[in-house]
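Page 47, continued from p. 46.
Same chain as before, 411 aa.
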Amino acid sequence: MTSVNCQFCGNSVTHTFADLGMAPLSNAFLKPEHAQKMEPFYPLHAYVCANCFLVQLEQYESPESIFSDYAYFSSFSDSWLRHVEEYAGHIIKRLGLGAESLVVELASNDGYLLRNFVAREIPVLGVEPASNVADVAKAAGIPTIVKFFGVETAQDLVRDGKSADLLIGNNVLAHVPDLNDFVAGMKILLKPDGLITMEFPHLLQLTQNNQFDTIYHEHFSYFSFLTVQRIFEEHGLTLIDVETLPTHGGSLRIYAMHSDQSSKRLSPRVKGMCAHEIDHGFDKMETYLKFGEQVKQTKRLLLKFLIDAKENGKSIVGYGAPAKGNTLLNYCGVGNDFIDYTVDRSPHKQNHLLPGTHIPVFSPDKIKETKPDLLLILPWNLKDEIMEQMSFIREWGGAFLVLIPEPVIIP
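Result:
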């Protein structure tokens, strides 16, 4: 039996959360001329720790290999840009941030969030490991350093006189292969009375809504609130508040402070979230062990649906080329025998092939040329935004299709 060590508590981890077979890296898009070359596949097997209930993957590729040249740019989702603009306005008011403050974002991508602080003349610093993405941020006037974050980077920044009044990490915690180093680094970089906010997909929502496609190699870990609370406490940081968010199929936003500063600021929502997760069994191993069979049943259901659609003569194309879509397609064995092509707004993905399935990626303009019967929305978390953008498919009787949590056609 395969055994990995829990990246938080170090225990040997043998219990399977979900085994999705072999898969390529979900953001390893191919150029068409490389279609005949050998493509690496790795086990996509999520385990759960019996001690701390951290769900995690075994690491097969280094973070440098995965993230140094990255295909994901945050600025291509309008709804996500609205989300972070609202967050910035809220947190600036809550903390009274101004010209004397410093806002640091970890995994700052193309500067999509920090520009909202720059517009209000609040000093910022982005820390982003992908140089191609960081270059876009720097070109937009967002100060950004190209580094992986951890204790060493935090110490370097503090030596340079940079400590954070607000330390932000949106959808980065799952991408961290060394959680203890990362959280310890945040402890170092945060000012004594500073605040950390982090957003990440909620493991409870993943299990309840069948979101197995959010499991991919770039996501090393998957979190309940109970487990995150334990990780932060281990490093002298206390979660003082938590909010539920609709983003990414259901996320949490946590607020953390140095433990010696947190006693008077604890929100009752922290106790409420702990109780909510315990009510749903997230402190018991059997809850986690049920998910693997649920995933297998979902695969069979999705394939039956797609086979029936094709046998009834339906043409299907995809919208989007997200990492979650690549997990879904590869696990279910869905290639261009089902999906003719997919489209994406990001020029960084267009004119490439999806990893593993080799489904071609085009500009959204392609949809009007071929007039498909069904438009499969692969980034289902953005389905409302996409359905609004692509409403014209109804002109020829086209309909939208989502497969998670179950197949649904939306006229």
